[in-house]
Amino acid sequence: MTNGDLDTTDNSAARLMVIQSGWNTTCYQILNPGIRLWFSQDRESCLGYVQEGKVLVVAGAPVCKLAKLDQTVTEWEGWASKLGKSVCYFGAEHRLTSLLSSRPGYATVVLGAQPQWHPESFVSGVKSDRSLRAQLNRARNKGVSVSEWPAARAENNADLQRILVEWLATRGLPPLHFLVEFETLGNLRDRRVFVAVKEGLPVAFVTLCPVPARNGWLTEQFVHGKDAPNGTIELVLFEAIDAIRKDGFCYVTMGIVPLSSHGDVDARSNPWWLNFSAKFARRYGNSLYNFEGLNRFKSKFHPDAWESVVAISTESGFSIRSLYSIASAFTSGSPTIAVAAGILKAIRSR
Asked: Alpha helix (H) ranges present in the chain?
């Protein structure tokens, strides 16, 4: 087996590294379908990536001990260079940005932000917010209850699959992949699943992915079906995060909000064309991807902090090619075709 190969053995080895050393919020997502795996020569580091043309788009950052990060980056980029490929790290967080941001030959741009909480403050924040309490009570008064399902029960469960299909039908774009893969119900090992039930029928669920080195979790999916009363998602999120609070975990995030300006890095340093594109997408793209709605939804839970989500490319200035490669990673093909399909779907629904 050579570096960059993808097979079930690699996946098992990568999972073990994630459980031992996964620090990035998206560390567990490198095990998603369609993501290739690369391992360092000493087999102490790995990362997940997809190839889009001449760009290798990395899912977050390498999975390794902090002391190995510099060595791992050097070896990985050397391997990519031998293939004639450039590298773009999407979803790089503080450890990687601290290492690379001041080095020549790298370009860093801000593409969004992610909210984060200590579970204790999330729970207390919900309890002290009159509007959020009303949402929870609204769902409870409609007979909604929440419980955690073991993986064996939730995996490939027909009711959860139905909820997912119903939710996807309301999205503007076709299903996305890469770090927001929706096809996870077939492999729930290491994940936690919380299900909202009304009158004996599941109507919503939340899946959590581990972020082991932070002693925390990522809310990977929170979806609801057409029969879920108002407040159901708020209730299932509250119960899920209250459960990890009781279990002694100290970190939780809801993941990226694309184009959010809440982060700790000023996006005005982005190239002018990228800020123009972001402004255009926020103004005209909400029918395809509800940027503002997602931003408002996550903000109402009063995050302890917002961390900027950045992309770092191995080039002197961040290029349109790198941005297109990131978009292609999420759409698993041409972003143009994905947008066109979303527009056609919107026209048909009207």
From this structure: 8-21, 69-82, 94-100, 119-128, 130-141, 151-154, 158-168, 232-246, 272-284, 291-299, 320-331, 335-349
Q: How does DSSP assign 313-350, residue by residue?
A: ESSSS--HHHHHHHHHHHHTS-HHHHHHHHHHHHHHH-
pTM of the complete model: 0.89
Average pLDDT, the chain: 89
CA distances from 190 to 151, 185, 221, 334 (A): 8, 12, 14, 32
* 54 phi/psi in degrees, rounded to 5: -95, 15
Tokens (6 digits) for 194: 């919380």
Task: Report DSSP letters for 58-91, one per residue.
Answer: EESS-BS-GGGHHHHHHHHHHHHHHTT-EEEEEE
- Over residues 253-283, the pLDDT tens digits come to 999 988 788 877 777 788 888 988 888 887 7
Give the pLDDT of residue 240.
98
